[in-house]
Design brief:
Helix content: 10-25%
Radius of gyration: 14 Å
Number of helices: 1
Shape: globular
Strand content: 5-15%
Order of helices and strands: EEH
Strand order of the largest sheet: 1-2
Organism: Streptomyces prasinus
Protein name: Hydrolase
Structural class: alpha+beta
Number of strands: 2
Mean pLDDT: 77
């Protein structure tokens, strides 16, 4: 059994690539700028919303 944590949760938490600079994509929840490029197609979250979403969907056990 490994203890690195990667084997523990089966939720796919794929994240978009970090942007090198502006323009940044808007957070889909609060409309604040994120760390992701504006050209990224998909769901983008700002750091506070990303953290809250991670807490909400965390594996329990």
């Amino acid at each position: 059994m490994t203890t690195d944590g990667d084997d523990y949760c089966l939720i796919d938490a794929t994240r978009p690539p970090r942007a090198d600079g502006p323009p940044y994509a808007e957070c889909v929840l609060c409309r604040e700028p994120t760390e992701y490029p504006e050209s990224y197609k998909g769901i983008t979250l700002c750091p506070p919303c990303e953290w809250q979403e991670a807490q909400r969907t965390a594996c329990s056990g």
